[in-house]
Amino acid sequence: MAPARNLSLSYSTFVIALLWPAATLAASIASPESCPVTNNHCTCLFKGPFYSLRCNSMREMTDFKAVLPSIGENAAVLELDSVHLDFLPLNDLSNSSLHTLIVGNSSFQRLHNSSGMHQPAVNLHHLSLENVTFHEKVQWKQFSNLTNLQVLFVYNTSVQNVIPANFSQYVSKHLVSLTVTESNITRIERNSLELLTNLTALRISYNNLRTFARDVLPQTSKLEQLRL
């Protein structure tokens, strides 16, 4: 895998700015309210009615579960950095109000805590995996419970290296941006994105692709940006 790069706070700021009007964001930053999460691993990046939470250096699932009860309805972004657990605790966020989950410079044994296909729905709009190692390589069908996902960003992460023909049956039909870079993708099969009619940005650069078939995309594509 490529050398690790650090997650940027400005990235979270950008995401939050997309979620709320600028005036609301400015008011939240200026608010004197304190961070509702009191944990040695976590800090609030924004105070007020909406906030972003950053947690790092977790190695026990009990550390993460201790944070969950404190994540209130005004939490928008959760960043996990340098976290090393048995599995990525996506399912624990099924009742959360979080819009965005950013995971970076971390490692997990597997994506889910069980191998069953019927995982609880998680209402994330944005999932970012940067420099993440899964010892059991992630299969695309494991994203099927992220039914409202609009942005999927995968960089230098252990995922299935083929984007199969039924890929668009597994991922959210609401996707507007799909990025899979430096993740050793070797093939994109025909019709793999045919159901992603809302997709406007596709970035699959810095992989091991040799061909890109014309009929990968839907016939009525809204694609505005393509990076191979």
From TrEMBL:
UniProt cross-references to SUPFAM superfamilies, sorted A to Z: L domain-like (SSF52058)
Signal peptide region: 1-26
Keyword Signal: yes
Presence of keyword Signal: yes
GO CC, alphabetical: extracellular matrix; extracellular space
Origin superkingdom: Eukaryota
Keywords (A to Z) from UniProt: Signal
Descriptive protein name: Chaoptin
